[in-house]
Amino acid sequence: MIRYILFLACFVCAFSQLRGQEPTFVLSSQQAVKADRIVVDELGNIYLMTATSIERRNAVGNGVFRTSEMQWGEFHAIDVTDPLRPFVHFPSAGKVVFFDNTLSTQASPIDLYELGFDNVEAMCGSRGDGFWLWDGRNSELIRVDRNFSKRYTSGNLSMLLTAEIHPVVMMERGSSLFVLGDNHSLYVFDMFGAWKKTLAMPISCSLDIDSDKLYIFSSDAAMQVVETNLWLSQEFKLPIAGAKYSYRHGSLYTLKDSQLSVFKFVENTRN
Asked: Which residues is 79 bridged to in the sheet?
């Protein structure tokens, strides 16, 4: 009983300290850019995208590299799971173009149709030196190695998830694969493609994942931070509404009206 009271007292104290923390976004830098989408890799490199080009800047805005190898049609975003080997998947053409860290293309594009993957709606990198593919026809996840040989598949997931999924975003972080569907649901899978949980998402939201935290950006200028170990969340007000967002290592990157703004996320304890 005494141990329980002591534990409860410590919990209340810790909770009070958490509520006493008031987060602040401090503007770090601003610069004019030509882009409508943004992705930041784990090294802090910034990728600015349009429908026809991608530009890469390092963490301090210098060392600019560009590519216009976008002749294969629309793409979701550049995948930066491996910062030294980013790639772009063009779903309608079935092509995958790999780059080095200067955005120079590596060899010829991969033709997924020739490899027997004729209905890949989305794709992302895996830290296990492979890739995840979403087969829209069979509603299944396919894990392939670096040479695009199948390692395992999830089987048809439509009945298990009671939904027809069309991924908007796919990314692997930590020991989970996250698939954001166009039905405003986020599906979480393990490293073998087994379903773990489903989270309801706000309409017109975007997301990013940094370490063991999931960042959900909603259109009403709110950022929800979810700790994926315990699935606890906190909500914070964003400094700019209606922007494109990316979060990495304590920095919030916002893109709006051709302006890239970088904010440091600071937690101040109230007296």
From this structure: 87
List of E strands, 58-211: 65-67, 87-90, 95-98, 110-111, 120-126, 130-135, 140-145, 150-153, 167-173, 176-181, 185-189, 195-200, 206-210
pTM for this one? 0.86
Q: What is the mean pLDDT of each run of 10 residues along the chain (271 residues)?
A: 35 34 79 94 94 88 82 92 95 95 92 96 92 96 96 93 92 93 94 94 90 90 92 93 94 95 76 34
Measured between alpha carbons, how far is 168 from 57 in angstroms, rounded to an integer?
25
Tokens 């199948």, residue located: 150
Q: How far apart are CA 180 and CA 217, in angstroms?
A: 13
Q: Which of 137, 171, 168, 135 is nearest to 150 (CA)?
A: 135
